[in-house]
Specification:
The complex is a heterodimer of chains A (406) and B (262). In chain A, helix 1 runs antiparallel to helix 11 and helix 13 runs parallel beside helix 17 (386-405). The longest helix of chain A has 23 residues, at 173-195. In chain A, strands 2-1-3-4 form a four-stranded parallel beta sheet, sandwiched between helices. Chain A has helices spanning 16-25, 27-40, 55-60, 76-79, 89-100, 104-108, 119-129, 146-166, 173-195, 206-209, 220-235, 243-248, 271-278, 306-315, 326-339, 353-369, 386-405; strands at 45-48, 64-67, 111-115, 134-137, 256-262, 281-286, 343-349, 374-379. By secondary structure, chain A is an alpha/beta fold. Chain A contains 17 helices and eight strands. Helix content of chain A is 50%, strand content 11%. Chain B contains eight helices and ten strands. Chain B has a five-stranded mixed beta sheet. A five-stranded mixed beta sheet of chain B has the order 8-7-6-9-10, sandwiched between helices. The chains are: A alpha/beta (406), B alpha/beta (262). At the A-B interface, helix 17 of A face helix 2 and strand 8 of B.
């Protein structure tokens, strides 16, 4: 399958944490088998494009929510027959799968759910919607407007009704609550794994941590593997002399702790993360949508109105399409305090206007408030600038080390 | 102590032999970059050793820098060109607060702290518009010697506006300007101004004086003038600007060797 990562796989041990990691190395295959079996049982497949889409409502409709974000450079040229070249690679790659027909999950999707996030996505969804059943959630962008959350809640009510009608099912409160429990459990496990990186000697590299994810949420076998990985990695209590822990660490000395922020690093597009860690650092926290951003907050399971509770959680996602996006800066502050990074590196996909413009404020926050050096890397999915990125990252680390020496 | 720095850049390889006790450059050389990077670098290194009347065994440390740095296996270690240029310029002009380095395919702005340490830096992304490659293309296209471009640009009263951000498309734009009958001098001056403007945008708000200009493109006097105009401050050119990366590498090789001897 083309969406598989072609980058170097993280070094893993024969310890059970390694076994859990190996499970997720075959994540796409597992998701393929899972979705195929689910379809055979008559469950619909629902493609999602963004972390704003509440998986709980899709799960409660008995459907399988699959992330369709493209991380492959190979599907970009086909997409450029229709889309402008000067557009973010994530959008082009995602749409390229529609052009090439090479993403089985997109081919299987009985419905694609999108939302009004950035302009590039919004307009791409119109093109995709010509060939695929498409449902677009209207996301209000002025986050501090009291009416915005109300509107978003109404959007989710309408979405629920749409799924019920389309898939001829009843989304009962009981089903919603079960889906909330399931997603809270999944988020909680992934959050605990991410929290291991607070240790002075993190038991994983950032490249290994990002493997702990699945494009389909709520697969029981995945949740078991999160638990297994967590158990074996926590058992050592962060003691680097434990064989379990040292075995899962890469051989390079990890001197620099990096807080990564910016755009999502979709499965298959981990190149910059690898370049950063190959320069002798460990990415201790990823603030982005493929990292901590969507799992920091759970849905309030005790809320008497489950749709409202879901709306609240999802609306708190600090995406750069919101204005002002103050939640992101608060998140960066607390992640910085918790994970103790030596620097902030921001990745911007070329032509991602909202993150690119917002980066000026992130730099200011890092340098002036957090007192951390900041580096912005603007790139796309092609490896042509890898040497240039490495030079900048290495120079940043040289500067940090020189400063530490005094 | 005798140390060496090798700067394996995108367009050429530079090597410097330094007496770290006196700060004197004993020999320096440059050769074109090519496919067999390590052989080219070795030949250059041996050549400058011969010129200085030295042998490899007398050299206490070698550091490689530049894009080809990892191909230079005879070096003790590698350090990025950002750190090396900063160290090299600091060696030549310790008062420097901002370095503008324009090389074959690179442009960088490096700001320095007291003591010459790198405070921050910015570099061009995936585009050669603000680099030496741009000037090379113009020289080739206009059938001119690279080094005479500046003299011609100096005659310009009204630099042409070159708006393209891409070297390839800028070439088309230049042809268009010439077809319109724009004087050659104005076109060349326009190109220099376009490069200076790109670099100034890279520098953003972080231009602290004194500013020094280095890298191969600094050999063109017109470029320093263009930078001065765009940045609205004096821009000094370091002596032997092609060699600051290699010089910095040699200085750092000396510091490293001294640490290892402790």
């Amino acid at each position: 399958m083309e969406c598989r990562s072609s980058g170097p796989q993280p070094s893993v041990s024969n310890a059970s944490a390694g076994a859990a990691l190996r499970w997720f190395e075959d994540m796409i295959d597992h998701c393929y088998d899972y979705a195929e079996a689910a379809r055979a049982q008559g469950r619909p497949v629902v493609g999602i494009m963004c972390e704003f889409t509440p998986r709980e409502i899709i799960l409660a409709a008995g459907a399988v929510p699959v992330c369709l974000c493209g991380g492959s450079a190979a599907t970009i040229p086909p997409a450029e027959q229709f889309l402008p070249a000067n557009l973010c690679p994530l959008i082009k790659s995602t749409f390229g799968y529609q052009v090439t027909g090479k993403n089985p999950f997109l081919n299987w999707a009985d419905l694609v759910v999108a939302e009004t996030t950035c302009d590039g996505k919004k307009k791409m969804f119109e093109l995709m919607g010509a060939a695929k059943p498409m449902y677009v959630l209207e996301l209000p962008h002025k986050a501090e407007n009291a009416a915005a959350l109300e509107h978003w809640t109404q959007e989710l009510h309408k979405f629920k009704a749409h799924l019920e009608e389309r898939f001829n099912t009843q989304i009962t409160e009981e089903k919603l609550r079960a889906a909330i429990q399931l997603m809270n459990r999944e988020r909680g496990l992934r959050r605990q794994l991410a929290d291991l990186m607070t240790q002075d000697q993190p038991p994983l590299t950032g490249r290994q941590l990002i493997e702990f994810k699945s494009i389909i949420s709520g697969i029981e076998a995945d949740l078991q593997q999160y638990e297994n990985g967590l158990k074996s990695l926590s058992a050592s209590g962060g003691d680097a002399s434990s064989p379990n822990v040292t075995a899962t660490k890469a051989s390079l000395p990890r001197e620099i702790r990096v807080l990564l922020t910016g755009v999502p690093i979709v499965h298959g597009a981990e190149r910059v993360l690898e370049l950063i860690e190959n320069a002798g650092a460990v990415v201790v926290a990823m603030e982005n949508c493929t990292g901590l951003k969507p799992i920091l907050e759970d849905v309030d399971a005790a809320d008497p109105a489950p749709i409202r509770a879901i709306a609240k959680k999802y609306y708190h996602l600090p995406c750069s399409v919101l204005t002002p996006n103050s939640g992101r800066f608060d998140t960066l502050r607390s992640l910085s305090a918790k994970f103790r990074p030596d620097c902030v590196i921001e990745i911007i996909w070329q032509a991602c206007l909202t993150y690119d413009i917002e980066s000026i404020q992130v730099r200011k926050l890092a340098e002036e408030e957090l007192k951390l050096p900041y580096l912005k890397i603007t790139t796309d999915y092609s490896p042509s600038d890898s040497a240039r990125i490495s030079a900048r990252v290495e120079a940043l680390f040289e500067t940090i080390k020189a400063k530490a020496k005094g | 102590m005798l140390c060496a720095g090798i700067d394996a850049g995108s367009r050429s390889i530079k090597a410097v032999l330094l007496d770290t006790d006196t700060g004197k450059i004993l020999a320096a050389g440059v050769s074109d970059q090519g496919v067999e990077q390590e052989r080219l670098a070795t030949e250059l290194f041996d050549k400058i050793l011969f010129e200085a009347g030295l042998e490899r065994a007398q050299i206490s440390g070698v550091i490689a820098t530049g894009y080809g740095r990892n191909a230079i296996r005879f070096a003790d270690t590698t350090i990025t060109e950002i750190t090396c240029h900063a160290r090299g310029v600091h060696q030549l002009a310790p008062e420097t607060r901002t370095i503008i380095e324009i090389g074959g395919q690179d442009s960088k702005v490096i700001s320095l702290e007291n003591g010459g340490r790198v405070r921050d830096f910015a570099m061009n992304d995936r585009c050669a518009a603000g680099t030496g490659r741009f000037l090379e293309m113009v020289a080739t296209r206009l059938n001119m010697n690279w080094s005479t471009l500046s003299e011609l640009a100096h005659q310009s009263q009204k630099p042409a506006l070159i708006s393209n951000m891409c070297v390839v498309f800028a070439e088309t734009e230049i042809i268009g300007l010439l077809a319109e009958g724009k004087p050659l001098a104005d076109v060349v001056a326009g190109v220099q101004k376009a490069i200076a403007t790109r670099v100034a945008a890279l520098a953003g708000r972080s231009v602290a004086s004194p500013v020094y200009f280095t890298g191969g493109v600094a050999l063109q006097p017109g470029m320093a003038r263009a930078l001065e105009e765009v940045l609205a401050c004096p821009v000094g050119v370091v002596s032997q600007p092609q060699f600051t990366g290699a010089l910095g590498a040699a200085v750092l090789a000396g510091e490293r060797a001294a640490r290892n001897n402790l």
